[in-house]
Design a protein that fits this description.
There is one protein chain. By secondary structure, this protein is an alpha/beta fold. The protein is 37% helix and 31% strand. It folds into two domains: 59 residues, Ubiquitin-like (UB roll), CATH 3.10.20; 83 residues, Translation initiation factor 3 (IF-3), C-terminal domain (Translation Initiation Factor IF3, 2-Layer Sandwich). The strands form two sheets. Strands 2-1-4-3 form a four-stranded mixed sheet. The protein has a four-stranded mixed sheet with strand order 5-6-8-7, with helices on one face. The longest helix is centred in the middle third of the chain and has 18 residues.
């Protein structure tokens, strides 16, 4: 086995020699890379090794950002000023790295204006073209028409 560690000369040793060296240093022999040829072992304190491993996993988990979905609601007769205001909010959300779910809520007989809602959502998507890419084109479910946007990766 290949042996590495702080107080050890990195080299290939027999299993018995590695165990003996670990006992002399009053430390543990830990297999680090079992799939390597020969397997890589390290002479360290096992509890410290577990602690460091857990700490690295926690840091990695913290780096993986949680995806937040922000919703923006429109009516089928949303005015230009309101539309612009909501576009500004969506830009802010997307720059923070959040997904945006924009939807047009049809109430009562306004469901007759499905085309207006679709045009509104497509206009919204084109306004946000440089900040986001469309994940799902406008889709009607019940009395709501949805559009999902993902933030573009910063390059």
């Amino acid at each position: 086995m290949r042996l590495v560690g702080d107080n050890v000369k990195p080299d290939i040793y027999s299993y018995e020699d590695a165990i003996r060296m670990a006992h002399e240093l009053e430390l543990d022999l830990v297999e680090i890379v079992p799939t390597a040829e020969p397997p890589v072992c390290k002479i360290i304190e096992y509890q410290k090794f577990l602690y460091e491993k857990k700490k690295k996993e926690k840091e990695q988990k913290a780096k993986n950002s949680k995806v937040v979905m922000k919703e923006i609601r429109f009516g089928p007769n949303t005015d230009d000023h309101d539309f612009d205001f909501k576009v500004k909010h969506a830009i802010k959300f997307l720059q923070e790295g959040n997904k945006v779910k924009a939807y047009v809520h049809f109430r009562g007989r306004t469901i007759a204006y499905k085309e207006k809602g679709e045009v509104l959502l497509l206009k919204f998507a084109t306004e946000l073209e440089e900040y986001a890419k469309v994940e799902l084109m406008p889709k009607l479910e019940g009395n709501k028409m949805f559009l999902f946007l993902n933030p573009k990766k910063k390059s």
